[in-house]
């Protein structure tokens, strides 16, 4: 019934299709577009996807592109034939965006695709190319050595300070295997042991750890049109992560830094990028310079903060895709985003370890405008998220009965 109503509304307004809607990333797109009157269809491989419960979207199960890319594409073609007009497609994760970018010609009869095709996306998928592009336009990076063999490992490690990290050039398979984006190496003696575990992951980057806390991690979020011209730009920083140092945001704030925006846009333009992206930097307290961490060629976990600041990246991409482009206004500063389902338990644990206090946590909250999951105007995803977390907690305590829903998927 909900899908029928959405398809009926799509006769008058081009719909949006969100690929992977299980968590905050997809929810942010759904809410950012749905609140503006755009009919939204949320796709996911998981019947428990939180986006299926949003008042702004009709949910549909789809095949997993990682397991059967052809079945996924056939599904999209079938859905496209049912749509009364072309939909704007929004992949939220690499495994979706790479498939769509590679098969854009096949999907374009039914979908407007507001991001780069595969020739450009390949450069974004390759973190070595990201770094080399940064060097070409004088964007600072951490010290990095590329390692493709044991022989190169010894040369790369010469004079390198530890602890350091191994980061993959191609990240998707690495994340699936290790459930984390990087592996930390504490000492020089540990280096070869860690390399044995990852040597089959292709070229790796041995990279210095830039000092500083979570609040030194800054992002440039933007939407660039097909000519790599910016139509919407946002800058902000993380304040707390889960877990600390190499985790995902649990608390973030908007702060406009024009020099940071310029660096991020310069890099994206060097890469010839089109679409929504996050360019993440870390400010090095040793010299105050911003060093590139990575480029995500898609929406990121806390992009809904940009929307709350007046820079709706999803709407900018949607409007450009349907031929009605606009330039987003300058962001409003001082607004904050929270993932309370992570921030509250983490803060409790940190309080017990005497790393923070309830008073310090409370003093950080003024200005908080948006939660990654919970919303008074769209409450059901938060209700189901709470039920899922409660079921997981009960299972961990040895509860019996119905199998609890698994934890939300981790997003970056």
Describe the structure.
This protein is of the alpha/beta class and 412 residues long. The chain has three domains: 2-113, NAD(P)-binding Rossmann-like Domain (Rossmann fold), CATH 3.40.50.720; 143-208, Dna Ligase, domain 1, CATH 3.30.1490; 211-393, ATP-grasp fold, B domain (D-amino Acid Aminotransferase, Chain A, domain 1, 2-Layer Sandwich), CATH 3.30.470. 37% of the residues lie in helices and 22% in strands. The chain contains 16 helices and 16 strands. It has helices at 2-9, 24-34, 69-82, 94-102, 104-107, 118-125, 127-136, 150-157, 171-178, 191-198, 258-270, 304-308, 313-321, 340-352, 358-364, 380-396; strands at 16-19, 40-44, 57-61, 87-91, 111-112, 144-147, 164-168, 183-185, 204-208, 217-224, 230-242, 248-254, 275-283, 290-296, 336-338, 368-371. A seven-stranded mixed sheet has the order 14-13-10-11-12-15-16. Strands 3-2-1-4-5 form a five-stranded parallel sheet. Strand 11 and strand 12 (248-254) form a beta hairpin. It is globular and about 65 Å long. Mean pLDDT is 93; it is low at 401-412.
């Amino acid at each position: 019934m909900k899908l029928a109503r959405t398809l009926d509304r799509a006769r008058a307004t081009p719909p949006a299709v969100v690929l992977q809607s299980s968590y905050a990333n997809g929810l942010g797109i759904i809410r950012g577009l749905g609140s503006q009157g755009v009919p939204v269809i949320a796709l996911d491989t998981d019947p428990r996807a939180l986006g299926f419960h949003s008042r702004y979207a009709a949910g549909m199960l789809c095949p997993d592109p990682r397991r059967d890319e052809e079945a996924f594409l056939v599904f999209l073609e079938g859905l496209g034939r049912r749509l009364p007009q072309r939909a704007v497609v929004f992949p939220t994760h690499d495994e979706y965006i790479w498939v769509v970018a590679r098969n854009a010609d096949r999907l374009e009869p039914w979908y407007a695709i507001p991001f780069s095709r595969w020739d450009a996306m390949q450069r974004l998928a390759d973190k070595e190319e990201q770094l080399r592009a940064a060097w070409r336009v004088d964007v600072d990076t951490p010290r990095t050595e590329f390692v493709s063999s044991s022989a190169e490992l010894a040369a790369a490690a010469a004079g390198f300070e530890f602890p350091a990290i191994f980061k993959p050039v191609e990240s998707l398979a690495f994340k699936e295997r290790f459930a984390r984006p990087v592996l930390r190496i504490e000492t020089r003696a540990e280096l070869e042991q860690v390399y044995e575990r990852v040597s089959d992951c292709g070229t790796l980057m041995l990279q210095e750890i830039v000092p500083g806390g979570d609040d030194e991690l800054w992002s440039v979020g933007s939407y660039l049109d097909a000519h790599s011209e910016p139509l919407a730009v946002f800058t902000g920083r993380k304040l707390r992560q889960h877990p600390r140092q190499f985790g995902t945001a649990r608390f973030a704030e908007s702060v406009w830094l024009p020099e940071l925006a310029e660096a991020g846009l310069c890099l994206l333009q060097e890469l010839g990028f089109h679409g929504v992206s996050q360019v993440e930097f870390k400010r090095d307290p040793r010299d105050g310079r911003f060093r590139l961490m990575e480029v995500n060629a898609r929406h990121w976990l806390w992009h809904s903060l940009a929307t709350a600041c007046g820079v709706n990246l999803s709407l900018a991409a949607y409007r450009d895709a349907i031929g009605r482009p606009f330039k987003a206004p300058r962001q409003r500063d001082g607004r904050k985003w929270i993932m309370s389902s992570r921030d509250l338990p983490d803060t409790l644990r940190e309080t017990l370890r005497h790393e923070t206090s309830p008073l310090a946590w409370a003093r950080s909250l003024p200005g908080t405008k948006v939660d990654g999951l919970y919303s008074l105007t769209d409450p059901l995803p938060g209700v189901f998220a709470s039920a899922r977390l409660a079921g997981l907690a009960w299972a961990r305590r040895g509860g019996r009965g119905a199998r609890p829903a698994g934890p939300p998927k981790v997003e970056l």
